[in-house]
Write a structure and sequence with these properties.
Blueprint (H helix, E strand, L loop, with lengths): L1 E12 L8 E12 L4 E9 L5 E3 L8 E3 L1 E11 L2 E11 L21 E9 L4 E8 L6 E4 L6 E5 L4 E4 L2
Antiparallel strand pairs: 1-7, 1-11, 1-12, 2-3, 2-8, 3-4, 4-5, 6-7, 8-9, 10-11
Length: about 160
């Protein structure tokens, strides 16, 4: 059965010199995988790719996942950068092969990691950072080159099952 979920996140931009902070098109998301029959697998998705990659388990390893980013939109407004992504994935009920628990359309403990990139104006060097739903908030992200605060996260990224 085809399922969709929405991932959204908001970061407040720092007061430091402009770092051109922007969302990267990759997402890591916990999904129950009917292929390896494991719950809560980390699934890597890239906008524009036809499929994702499931982290699998120790026996079978990584494998293609029936998931993709269907929509990816970012907006900058009023000292904030906002991301909204829709993920489509195939889901079928199964019993987890190791934990003996039923699969869920949205994992029992939904988790997401979102990636960002920036350009430091001082040494003119690129940098990256990530935010994820299981961090203790608030979080301040600083530039790896000049240590200036780039962004602040007050709320965890949100995951909402759409269908």
């Amino acid at each position: 059965m085809l399922r969709s979920l929405e991932v959204s996140a908001v970061l407040t931009l720092g007061e430091s010199p402009f770092h051109n902070l922007h969302w990267k098109s990759g997402i890591e998301l916990s999904l129950d995988c009917f292929i390896c029959q494991r719950a809560g697998r980390t699934t890597e998705l890239e906008h524009g790719a036809e499929q994702g990659t499931c982290s699998g388990d120790s026996r079978k390893g990584r494998h293609p996942a029936a998931a993709r980013i269907a929509a990816f939109d970012s907006t900058d407004e009023r000292k904030r950068t906002i991301l909204r992504a829709v993920v489509d994935y195939w889901w079928a009920p199964f019993q987890d092969a190791k934990q003996d628990q039923p699969s869920l359309a949205s994992t029992h403990v939904p988790w997401v990691r979102l990636h960002l990139a920036y350009l430091c104006p001082e040494p003119v060097q690129p940098g990256t950072l990530s935010t994820q739903s299981n961090l203790i908030r608030p979080v301040t992200y600083t530039c790896e080159h000049c240590a200036a605060p780039i962004a602040h996260s007050h709320d965890a990224p949100r995951i909402q099952l759409l269908t």
